[in-house]
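[job 0412] stage=fold_complex status=start
inputs:
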Amino acid sequence: MMAHLDDQTLSDLLDDALDAPARSTAEQHLASCGPCTSRVQRLRTVVAQAAALPRSMPTPAGEWESIRARIGSGGSDVTHAPWWTRRGALLAAGLALVIASSGLTLLFVSGGRDVAMQPTVPAATSTALTPRLAALEHEYATVTRDLERELAERKHALSPETISAVERSLHTIEAAIAEARDALARDPGSETLARLLVAGHDQKVELLRHATRLATQS
Amino acid sequence: MSLTGSIVRGPSPAVADESAELARRAQHGDVAAFERLYRAHAGHVRALCIRLCADGQRAEELAQDAWVRVWERLSTWRGDAAFSTWLHRLTVNVVLESFRAERRRLARVTLAGDEDDTDAAIPAPEPGDALDLERAIARLPRGARTVFVLHDVEGYRHSEIATMTGLAEGTLRAQLCRARRLLMEMLDR
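[job 0412] stage=fold_complex status=done
writing structure:
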């Protein structure tokens, strides 16, 4: 008798992911192997139990109210219009101006759907990063863009002092990111500089996230 | 034919029709219609978030994020797919984005070239600690849990999960196998 079927084969068999010869071989084995038949039945039971799990779970009290507060009091004129036409547009524009002052951020928003500005980051700078760092920056770009959009929609709930503080902090962080990036362009192999760059991005994401939460809770 | 099925479980036609109508009204800024959509689907969004991230607090945040994202992007729903299908895909994307953000943080300590692997070690259960399936799923490593929830609980196909997660189909089949094996072990203890 051939060796027992491995779990990958059994799992693929359940999902009809084996090619015809492999499936035929597996089925022939199962026809004469008690342990494998027992194991595939156990596997099938787990899969069936998973499919039968309840589709729904109770939602936390007050969830809708929180969502309602976050989507604002208006209708489509507030939420579905381009961000620069919404309430708080001037404040959003102010923040965008600060963000636009950073070449790095321009790189970030280059794929943005709602951002009118075009990236002007020097090509030499953007190609100086390793593929791994470039991929990380791409991910940061996605998250940052979403957070910026969300914050732009909610920042009207923040006091002018808070907005000013957020903008100053963003400016400082972006300056640090830009410095790290410039240094990395001169010394691409430096892991310390790479960590510094990533830490700067993290700080920016955290600041945007924190500011968005503040705006939501206001 | 697949022995496990591969069709995403959806609402009844009547619920789907009502949701479509509500979604169209919400697209025009009808917040009351959006609230009814929320009431109809919030439980599933909640379940999806909890099962994917195995963290109640985080799931609560992500579910809210997902609903806000739904409101913001309602205009992109064209009615080609059922509203629930669109909603669940968007929710999954929100959760996966949060995973990617977490990976970035971990990247600070793995820049030397380590592969990203956010799978946490499975906590060792106490002797005689029988687990129900929900608790066992929550103990799975993240990668395996994600694929298992999307495939075996939610009914997405391998190809759909590959698109959502960016994983090669071979990798996600291996993750699925790993999840099932670990679940069997946990449930058999």
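[job 0412] summary: Chain B is about 70% helix and 0% strand.
[job 0412] exit 0
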